[in-house]
Amino acid sequence: MKRTLVTASLMAAGLFSLPTLAADIEVSVTNLTHGNHFTPLLIAAHDADSHLFQVGTEASAALQKMAEGGDIADLDAAVTGNAGVTSANPAMGLLAAGMSVSEVMLDTGDNTHLSIVAMVLPTNDAFVGLDSWEIPTEAGTYTMYVNAYDAGTEVNDEIINGGGMSGVPGIPAAPGGDGGANGTGVMDSSDNSNVHTHPGVLGDMNPAGGMSDLDSRVHRWLNPVAKVVVTVK
């Protein structure tokens, strides 16, 4: 029987592969965006059958909480409850644009795969995500450029209304007060309710109206949004 963290539908890494032991690792994450923040990061080592999210599948309630409001508690509990190990909120708060969190150490034990998630702020339900990357057993430094994904749980209207928590429409206010108000809402005709690659935000340059409450000069981004460096000891 496959084990699960947050969903019932999981993909095994290989039916006939033998388990291998991963080494201790050091992880760094850099925010590559121009003016967006990452909410508290969750860096997790787990087994091959487990996922925090999967592209093309419906988001779990725990993933929705993270993607809409930055709450990683349920995902963290799911990993540790399934014998995984985590580093929760290693930046001790928001990770600003251009900033890095480094020297995050994980004793992976028997866990062979690495996942990383954090909400991209301000957005409706975008999150930076590394899904179940197999940790190399050979010592060395490995670099990845990571995309942002759309949880598919909220319309990307780009309206800040004080909401943004799970199940509540709206975006949490942008740090620094550089968000707008009174937007009419970006028209998003997408009906993809599964996790998918995020198209980025549109924004506008009208702080008191327009279609979006996001300033396109500050908050516009395209993938990738993060650089991840893993050093296997």
UniProtKB/TrEMBL annotation:
Residues of the region (Disordered) are 172-199
The UniProt transmembrane annotation reads none
Q: Which InterPro entries match?
A: Spondin_N, Spondin_N_sf
Q: Quote the biased-composition stretches of kind Polar residues, using this chain's numbering.
A: 187-196
Whether Transcription counts among this entry's keywords is no
Q: Which UniProt keywords apply?
A: Signal
Per the UniProt entry, the signal peptide is 1-22
The chain positions of domain Spondin read: 35-154
Source organism superkingdom? Bacteria
This chain belongs to the protein called Spondin domain-containing protein
Q: Which organism is it from?
A: Shewanella phaeophyticola
Taxonomic lineage: Bacteria, Pseudomonadati, Pseudomonadota, Gammaproteobacteria, Alteromonadales
